[in-house]
Each structure stands twice: as C-alpha cells, then as structure tokens.
Amino acid sequence: MDKSILTIDGIEYVRKDAQAIGDVRIIVADRGWVFVGNCHDNDDGSVTITNCRNIRLWGTTQGLGELVNGPLQDTKHDAYGTVRCTPIVTIAVNKGW
Length: 97
Hints:
The chain is mostly beta strands. It has a single domain (21-92), classed as SH3 type barrels (Roll), CATH 2.30.30.100. The chain has no helices and seven strands. The protein has strands at 5-8, 11-14, 24-28, 34-41, 47-57, 76-85, 89-92. The strands form two sheets. Strands 6-5-4-3-7 form a five-stranded antiparallel beta sheet, with no helix packed on it. A two-stranded antiparallel ribbon has the order 1-2. Strand 4 (34-41) and strand 5 form a beta hairpin. The N and C termini lie far apart (33 Å). The mean pLDDT is 90.
C-alpha cells in the first residue's frame, strides 16, 4: 500500500510532497535561460542539471510545452555540461531529449 495516496469515496488524492516530476526536465531559469537535462533537486531549492542543454531557440508555434517530446525541427540547443540554478518554471519531459 502506498502511504502517499489517500482514497476517499473512490477518488485518489496524492500528497503534494510525494509528486515526482521525473529526472529529465525543462527548466526556465532567471533572465530567460531555458535548460533541459537530467535534474537533481537540492535542499536549497536549486536544481543541478547534468547533460544540460541550453535551449536558445524554441522553434515552437504554441509555446515551450511543445518540447516535452523532444526538440522540433526549428529548435536550437547547445551542450552546456552541468548547470546549477534556481528554477522559475519546471516542465516534465516525456521523451526525446
């Protein structure tokens, strides 16, 4: 039995602190920087991103969310190694990065 899920009248409720977003994420950071890579959450609220790529041109027509399945034909991104930053927005990635 998963103790982070509570069922009331057939509806499952998940503890807010138990929700995992996954290791690969798109991170919007300060001053418009957008990164994608393998993320590790730090105790101070920052995130360390390994295998990091800087997304410098989204190449989307409907916003950043279009990149959850990987880069599009017009997306431009560059290898950045390892980055540590405080996320403003975190987006779960399904596949493709």
